[in-house]
Amino acid sequence: MRQHLKRLFVALCLGASLAASAQTASQPPVRIALIESLSGAFANTGEAVFRNLVWATERVNARGGVKLAGGPRNLVIERYDNKGQNEEALAALRSAIDDGVTIIAQGNSSAIAAVLIDAINKHNEREPNKRVLFLNYSAVDPVLTNEKCSYWHFRFDAHADMRMAALMDVLKDDSALKSIYLIGQDYSFGQAVLREARKQLGVQRPDVQIVGDELHALGRVKDFIPYAVKIKASGAQAVLTGNWGNDLTLLIKAAKEVGYEGKFYTFYGNALGVPGALGDAGVGKVVAVADWFPNEAGAQSEAFYQSFRQRFPKPQDDYVHMRMQLMMESLAQSIDKAGSADAGAVAAQLERSTVTFAGHKGAMRAADHQFQQPLLVALMGKQGSPGVKFDVEGSGYGFRVIKTISPERAEQPSTCKMVRP
């Protein structure tokens, strides 16, 4: 049955004629600039994104590419290393624009996303004949689709307040929880997470005492033992964090080393070394929120995951995100409808796009360009236990979905006042 599902998925997503492939190969591709951390502390997150986007473009190209007025064309991902720094990201943006790229993709760091939005707004105003789009797959500071919303920016991940509300949907029912420690990265996103955590705890669980509330430098802490010691000494029954990348993995490892036995409510605890770092100590204790999990029920979801694992068989490459696939499908659909790769024409289609893929459906909200989709909350468990068919990164541990939040329930209001060209 499993092999049948894999073959079915590959046939549906990759089945394209040789003639169509030959035709697209003769045309210049539509280029997408990935401006990400491809070196330094967060290089693993950038490389993981690259695999996701390449896989998505392979699927589009195999079915004949995108349909422009001059004929079908392939999509191609081009790499620009921002080294996790704002100035490097701006330099990469300038290079991409000089290279003639019209579609920018970035997500790992809301601070970088914010400077890119400002720069793209200014560029598009100065150079209306060379406008570019910004596709954001994981920069989730709520401000990016509120006060800083832009016609040229489209976010395909749920923002931090949406993710926090989903976590709180589970946390509020944890009647044994009486104390919690808040910790995050000291930049716009980390600050937004802790701010919203305090707000929602006050509303949902005013009986829970916040026994720690601190921020640490982004990507600079090599030893989290002092933080873990403070967490354990505080008596906190749980930790809530929006940390990602090595800042989450090292925090989790340190907590295990000092013998902390409380729960972790996380945004990203389901990947990049976290399950393997915790082992049995994380079973039944690590909660994560995402737009999709490998153990989500359904034949289409399983076939989707099996197909990715077939394409990237190394256990350490096991980092697949449905939202990135939906983003690329939305882009391809919008280019097809526009019949052009012009940023203005594509944006007009993208802001009202609705896409369905592998059993998942999402829609872009035109008012603020915030994608609306289901959110899932899952709990870490041993592979083979009920609800945990697939593990993460070959660790022997995976995540069992414990709650699904509909798009209508996950949706949050926006203060965006969109300025349209």
Walk me through what this model shows.
- It is a single chain.
- By secondary structure, the chain is of the alpha/beta class.
- It is built from 14 helices and 17 strands.
- It has two domains: 12-158 and 317-372, Rossmann fold; 161-290 and 375-410, Response regulator (Rossmann fold, 3-Layer(aba) Sandwich).
- Strands 9-8-10-11-12-16-17 form a seven-stranded mixed beta sheet, sandwiched between helices.
- Helix 1 (2-14) crosses helix 11, helix 4 runs parallel beside helix 5 (110-126) and helix 12 crosses helix 13 (343-350).
- Mean pLDDT is 92; it is low at 1-22.
Record the SSE blueprint:
Elements: H1 2-14, H2 18-25, E1 30-36, H3 43-62, E2 66-68, E3 71-73, E4 75-81, H4 86-98, E5 103-106, H5 110-126, E6 133-136, E7 153-155, H6 160-171, E8 179-185, H7 188-204, E9 209-216, H8 225-234, E10 238-241, H9 246-257, E11 263-266, H10 274-278, E12 286-290, H11 299-311, H12 322-338, H13 343-350, E13 354-357, E14 360-365, E15 370-372, E16 375-382, E17 397-405, H14 407-410
Parallel strand pairs: 1-4, 1-5, 5-6, 6-7, 8-9, 8-10, 10-11, 11-12
Antiparallel strand pairs: 2-3, 12-16, 13-14, 14-15, 16-17
Helix pairs in contact: 1-11, 3-12, 4-5, 6-7, 8-9, 12-13
